[in-house]
User: Fold these one by one.
Assistant:
Number 1:
Amino acid sequence: MPIIHVTTVEGEALELQADSGRSVMEVVKANDLPMLAACGGALACATCHVIVDPDWYDRLQPPSEDEEDLLDTAHGLTSTSRLGCQILMREELDGIRVCLTPMD
Amino acid sequence: MTEDEDFTTDVAVIGAGPVGLFAVFECGMLKMRCHLIDALPAIGGQCTALYPEKPIYDIPAAPELSAAELVDRLHRQIAPFAPQFHLDQQVVALQRAGDTWELVTSRGIRIRARAVIVAAGAGAFGPNRPPLADIEDYEGRCVHYLVTERARFRGQRLVIAGGGDSAVDWAIALADEAAEVHLVHRRERFRAAPESVDRLHQLVAEGRIQLVIPYQLAGLEGDGTRLSGVLVKTLDGDQRRIPADHLLAFFGLATRLGPINDWGLGARNGVVPVEPATCATSAPGVFAVGDIAGYPHKLKLILTGFAEAAHAAHAAFAFVYPDRALHFEYSTSTGVPGRESA
Ligand SMILES: Cc1cc2nc3c(=O)[nH]c(=O)nc-3n(C[C@H](O)[C@H](O)[C@H](O)COP(=O)(O)OP(=O)(O)OC[C@H]3O[C@@H](n4cnc5c(N)ncnc54)[C@H](O)[C@@H]3O)c2cc1C
């Protein structure tokens, strides 16, 4: 089962088991970590904004235009910002590193 | 803004999303009167704020229904119960007052109720405020999330931030009367109507709007009352200062859990834990339904919320009518109290 390395806003490092096919957002929420994910993955908000480790960013499918539009409404963007609901876990992403962003 | 009005009712429903609306119906069928409070100026919650035009396919017995139509039908369904709406205001406090609960809204309205149904979704909708230091000090005076009076911007230096229709349309609309308009956006593409984007580029070519791309807001400069400049930076950390009297930030809506965390309901990461069969929270007489209510294997769907509303209303009955036994009846037997039969 692929693993996600998550760093929380407070700097705590965690290793989460992720079933293939689940999104980073779903895995983070299932582990009860602080993330709002207000729209539940419907691609209607940016509250599952995560910062992907630059070593991993280019291995992801590039963001869709809809995702880019929502990233416009996220604060504190970086050049490797993504929406957690749009990163679907698969074996090749085993070991991916992401940082969470502040909730409010 | 205080209206200093006091109300007493059977059930106060916090949140007028689809689930809060249906909770009014379920309460009404059990002869419980409701007051309904929402931070948004319109009813419908996410359906209205995020996706009014999208079709929904998983509402039982409605093969296809737009979100706006769903809200309209719910509104009609609860009309016979004449709920009192308090819109455009947030519930900021929920506290025990003798044998009732007392809610206070951001407009100073107080509502006393025997039972409370929290149908707060992902939190109260409000402007998506950029997290800049001291921004609250300038809000209303120099930092704005909507334009109510254009006249105040005459001859002023404006920074407008955002990449959607509101940012583009206001940059165009205010280009004439403002002294300067700087439009800050993180990338070349604007997600706005193509005609507006064309007009924007025309005004940029004429030198009446300055584009500040690819920049994001980074800070505010001023004396704590009046703004003097807005700091922006690129992803590479290149920082610039734009002299400005006003910042207009258009990043759409965001939800804030805010006060709900302080109501002693054990809210955690946007979820209020409930007993699934009754939707009771840890506070007696306070129930939670819809997206905000959590229990193992919860499905965040409108249909789930509708069922939860029925459970919560039946469980709330004991708090509203402590001396009466609840006699279970179908709607086919009771009809809808207050509705003229067709
Ligand atoms: C794009 C999209 C598509 C979707 N498609 C579907 C679908 O096909 N089928 C489906 O079943 N579901 C769908 N959903 C999910 C569905 O919209 C939600 O499950 C539903 O809106 C939850 O209803 P609710 O009444 O619990 O909360 P919400 O709709 O979130 O409403 C909560 C309301 O409470 C208000 N509020 C919160 N706190 C306060 C406070 N302190 N004071 C005052 N007001 C407050 C908020 O302002 C808000 O208006 C979709 C969601 C999105 C974003």
Number 2:
Amino acid sequence: MEEAAVSIKDMLQKDQILSSGHRMCAGCAAPTIVKLMGMALRGPTIVCEATGCLEVATTIYPFTAWKIPWIHVAFENAAAVASGVIEAQKIMREKDRSEYEHVDVIAIGGDGGTFDIGFGAISGMLERGHDVVYMVYDNGAYQNTGIQRSGATLPGQETTTSWAGKVEPGKRQRKKPLAEIVAAHKTPYVATVDPYHYRDFIMKFRKALEVDGPAFIHAFSPCPRGWRSDTSRSIELAKMAVEVGIHPLYEVIDGEEWIMSGPSKRIKELTPLEEFWALQGQFRHLKDPKWSDFKKDLQDQVNHDWELLKKRCGIE
Amino acid sequence: MRPGCPCSVSYYASDTLTLVVLVEVTIIVEDFQKFAADGEVHTAVIPVESEHSAMSACVGASAIGARVATASASAGLALMWEILYCAASMRMPIVFTVANRALSAPINIHNDHSDGMGMRDSGFVQLYCQSSQEAYDTTIMAFKLAEDHDVLLPVMVGIDGFILSHNVERVEMLPTEMVHKFLGVRDPVQPLDPKNPITMGPLALTDYYFEFKEQQDRAMWRVPEAYKKVEEEFKKITGRSYGMFEDYKTKDADIIILAMSTMGGTAKAVADVLREKGEKVGVIRLKMFRPFPSEEIAEAVGDAKAVMIFEKAMSFGAVTSPLAMEVRSALYNVDKRPMVVDFVVGLGGRDVPPTTFVEGYEKTKRYLEKGQAPLYETLGVRK
Ligand SMILES: Cc1ncc(C[n+]2csc(CCOP(=O)(O)OP(=O)(O)O)c2C)c(N)n1
Ligand code: SF4
Ligand SMILES: [Mg+2]
């Protein structure tokens, strides 16, 4: 995969695509993610978004924070809407009914809209090979509707549908390995990103736009409201997610070539999960000694996944 | 190409049609894909993984200004349900052919109107057709109606599953250029356009949501006017038009049969036979179910003694069945209210032969003598 043709310095100068005054919570990482995405844009672009926090809070009628064309239809269909947009644009251009040689089409969904209910539509879009960049901003739960568990919720995480209690440690199940599943579609470009590593984020997003055919970006998105974390520590949490190995940064080309990205490659040893949990109310219950075996299992799982990823990326 | 198959509609409208979104379920879809494969149509085809995605992709494509069509029925239509409301509310002029079929369970592939009635409040204009020719003509007109700037609503064109969707009959096709000229190119009002960015499909809460619905409702009531205009133009080039409903020998009728789609044909044949026997029977074959032409229906019913409805859908637990509910409401304000009799027939593709109409007719005469009729009843079913 070639490096993007534009320098990061130029990209950082770009006009913002999201105005201030949107109504996301203080400290929410999602608007930062959109801002970084905006820096990677290269021309006429249309955004198709799924229902969720970002959609709801940035477009409360009669206001909108979006400075580029944007459409929302429903919770589970951003990928299908994007398919319609890209195909219509292409054929209208062929028929000389569009002034744009090319329009970049981006679909955005939350983890609920992507890992769970929108999964079929994404799989369909990937199979059809539509030239769309799909980005999930993953805040680990259905935050907009009150912190319900999703397929992206981490084991040990407390949500309003995976309570921690006398006999339960929060969610028990693993997180769905979505980037891997998307890669398994032989998707031309898959990358995980994180708002702390903004250069890595922007360069990957740009690559995603430049690649022919579908691309998938998995962005880690701290949510102070749902995670019960300090609003000033979201970007720090994003950094830690990479260090503890729950959101390693990598790329997968054509579902075959696995490349560990710089920030993850530089990690000698994973930071213990404990440090990541300590900053969030949603893991507070794990301090109870009765969950020490459960915690050890979670740490083992992350270590195991990390070793597997390193092997896939040809490290060691 | 099967002459007479309504799929040929898409073929001739094709150069003006930009995009078709399809799940492989109907003959319409298969044949259209064949035209595309042979390069006979210059239309993008998106073979989607589900009907939910089909309607979603239609909305996306329509949002950037393309002329868009899709087709479905039954379970597939049911899966689209959520997005039907979005399509209408977002004012996307999508043309949607529905080969009307029964809903599960039990799973069944045959004709009735449960799917169409299920989507009746979605905000789609609904036009139900009686013949292949009418299906062909209506589909062409539907684009013009949907895209009319006074309307901007999606239009459902209903054809009875199997009875019409798999029918073979002669159809007079229009020359391609004629269709092009009639439809022109879609002129979208507010497309998604990078040079003129807008936000579509926002959140609207207690302070604005209601206004969206108010406007949508007004648009719906501009349909009859726009439909008349479209039909007049169509008639000029083809000599054919259908009206919001077909009025058959109703002038002096004592009893009027009211039915939709292919049942209209049987009803007219039955009326002819009964008339030969001296019975004063007429038929209203309703084509436009949404918006419902209530005043016009009331006028056409005139001072008949009874309106006898034959319909292929139920509304479980309702006062009566969907079509009868509309007709009863439409007639509520007339001075000499006729008796309204409602027969639910043909569910799951059960045949509705002329004898069923005659049975209903005999019952209706008895009800008239008694001065009383049930709110609805089923005919042609084991009880
Ligand atoms: C079909 C459907 N089911 C449920 C909802 C209600 N709903 C709206 S947003 C949402 C959760 C969104 O979660 P996610 O995708 O993770 O985005 P987040 O709000 O966390 O950013 C739900 C359940 C809906 N709009 N549509
Ligand atoms: S609830 Fe979480 S994801 Fe939603 S706006 Fe607030 S911080 Fe962001
Ligand atoms: Mg979420």
